[in-house]
Amino acid sequence: MNNPLLANATLPMFSQIKPEHIVPAIDQLLAEARSSVEQHLQTTQHYTWKNLIEPLEDVDDKLNKAWSPISHMNSVVNSDELRDAYNACLPKLSAYSTEMGQNEALFKAYRFIADSDEFATLDTAQQKIIRNALRDFKLSGIDLDNEKKQRYKDISQELSALASNYEENLLDSTNAWSKLIRDEQDLAGLPESALAQAKQTADDCKDAGGRATHGAVAGSHNEDGWMITLQFPSYISVMTYADNRELRREHYEAFATRASDQGPHAEQWDNSENMEKILALRHEKARLLGFNNYAELSLATKMAEKPDDVTHFLEDLADRSWRHARKDLAELREFAKQHYGINDLQSWDMTYYSEKMRQHFYQLSQEEVKTYFPITRVLPGLFAIVEKLYGLQITEISDFDSWHPDVRFFQIHDQTDQLRGQFYLDLYARAKKRGGAWMDDCVSRKRFDDTIQIPVAYLTCNFTPPTGDTPALLTHDEVTTLFHEFGHGLHHMLTQVDHLGVSGINGVEWDAVELPSQFMENWCWEKEALALMSGHYQTDEKLPDALFDKMIAAKNFQAGMIMVRQLEFSLFDFRIHRDYDPEKGGRIYEILEQVREQVAVVRPPKFNRFAHSFSHIFAGGYGAGYYSYKWAEVLSSDAFSLFEEKGIFDQETGKAFLTNILEKGGSQIAMELFINFRGRKPTIDALLRHNGIAA
């Protein structure tokens, strides 16, 4: 059989990839990789960059380019058959990774190069790759005895399977719940766009005989009506606008108990055991490697040097923010009581009355703002901003292969007409697609003799899709999300580093990787930038000055509450990993309650099972690392403050950010790169100022 995963094409042939291709392709590539490593180790005893590291990068690249579309399709067009094939490969890939990390001969070969005269002649990126590799050998258990090496390998495989199962439970539980509303009065308060989407979801589901089609979930029915689901655009519309308090409560409970022992599908897709096992195995792995806990192990590849650095940073921010958060909540409670007679503000009321309060005090309606941000204006505006900052041209390509009809494809060229990067854009929520927004690498930049492999990114969001002739309309938060993910994409695609291990986002400290993404969000609040990306979907009128002024006035509305909520997530994540005790187990909700006592102002109901859907830390690479968002926000706010001084489209400053941050990838330590750009170490002042919090 012709296997598209083995074709070594420039771009993946998504439409040809079938579940039955996956395991044979990965088996063949792993066998070839093992053989190649062995061959290169045996060819010589005098190892160099050219005869060892460069050919092994080719091996890694070939494997990555086959696994990337498999992993991506598992996230965006999930099916039982694809899931089974994906899961069958996870232990194979984990075993290979551990074998390489524990390969004594390979470790000695890298050390030989590090100790040789050649090392001093290598460029900064090459030296960083070798140093990273030697560190990663240690973190893979190279120093362990054989019994402990095997245990490390077993742990790694099991963690890989547990993370996948955690994500599957969350996807399945999200898709399992829907509610058909037969009386439009039950949806009073919802804007026309949300009603139209709920109507389309119901119609699509009805047409499919109850099968999910576009953004819907299974829910067989033969009646007309409006269907609400746990897809985020549907959920947030109900939470923000539905006057029906009981409907909000029901929807909130279904969303807040996904993949747990509570709620409408209690214990059906329960992640409780997965979470306990993940924490236990991470702790055991850390102890095997000589760390006191997984938090210490996590920091081995980050900017922060020790756990106290992280907790002090988070607690300091909490101390600065808590008074503001208390004030925000008190004002919301008073507003709900005074204007609506609500004396017992509940979790399912928070978003609803916050929106009412925003409209009351700022005359600002999110729904009105949306009308000025059709995707047909936002996307060209984003591209225009990138062109102004970095001198880039972004063009859409119509002839390409993809995994879904919604997907679009673009190329980025620089001022010399050199192709710098390419990206897929998959913007809309649908069934069989995991929630959230993310950037992932499809192809990484790498030099092959005289040719450069052009980097390719996946940019994925879950916005409300278009309905009828109306284009997708984005909330300002969604505009910010798009800019955030595009910042990640630029970091991956604009790299000028030719070596796989540190090109793009590869090799970047995890708590610095959010710098380019959060940095891009700042343009979403600048009048000059908003003029480029706004235009009423019916009249093309630019965002009016009066509406912009209201947005700016409301920018830090409830900023204190938002800040402490993120700090709650970060401290919870860090503490369940730092304080893990094998004799007591994970104590997940006990520790969460302690963290809430320390920093939270809003306390959710007892049935809330937030951690059961916190896939960032249990399945997404942010374990003991969620603090990275706030850590990197210090960097991004301080970096943007230079544009505030020089001008938001100052080309010299844009070029400095491009050359010192985006193009350098992971080739240097993140702090060095920041200082090269900013001229000094970062300070927290700009972060506090941008959030309306006094220094």
Keywords, separated by commas or semicolons:
alpha+beta, Glutathione S-transferase Yfyf (Class Pi), Chain A, domain 2, 4 domains, five-stranded mixed beta sheet, 9 strands
A few lines on this structure:
The protein is an alpha+beta fold. It has helices spanning 19-43, 49-76, 80-101, 104-115, 124-139, 146-176, 192-207, 232-241, 245-256, 272-288, 294-299, 307-340, 347-362, 366-370, 375-390, 476-493, 515-521, 527-533, 545-553, 559-578, 588-599, 615-618, 628-646, 651-662, 670-678, 685-690, and strands at residues 178-181, 226-229, 393-397, 408-413, 419-428, 438-443, 446-448, 451-453, 456-463.
Folded structure, characterized:
- By secondary structure, this protein is α+β, with helices and mostly antiparallel strands.
- The protein has four domains: 4-101 and 103-139, Glutathione S-transferase Yfyf (Class Pi), Chain A, domain 2, CATH 1.20.1050.40; 177-251, no CATH class; 272-364 and 559-626, Neurolysin, domain 3 (Orthogonal Bundle), CATH 1.10.1370; 375-520 and 629-690, Neurolysin, domain 3 (Orthogonal Bundle).
- It has helices at 19-43, 49-76, 80-101, 104-115, 124-139, 146-176, 192-207, 232-241, 245-256, 272-288, 294-299, 307-340, 347-362, 366-370, 375-390, 476-493, 515-521, 527-533, 545-553, 559-578, 588-599, 615-618, 628-646, 651-662, 670-678, 685-690; strands at residues 178-181, 226-229, 393-397, 408-413, 419-428, 438-443, 446-448, 451-453, 456-463.
- It has a five-stranded mixed β-sheet. Strands 1-2 form a two-stranded antiparallel ribbon. Strands 7-8 form a two-stranded antiparallel sheet.
- Helix 1 packs antiparallel against helix 2, helix 1 packs parallel to helix 3 (80-101) and helix 3 (80-101) runs antiparallel to helix 6 (146-176).
- Residues 211-219 have low confidence and may be disordered.
- GO terms for molecular function: metal ion binding; metalloendopeptidase activity.
- Pfam families: Peptidase_M3, TOP_N.
- Its EC number is 3.4.24.70.
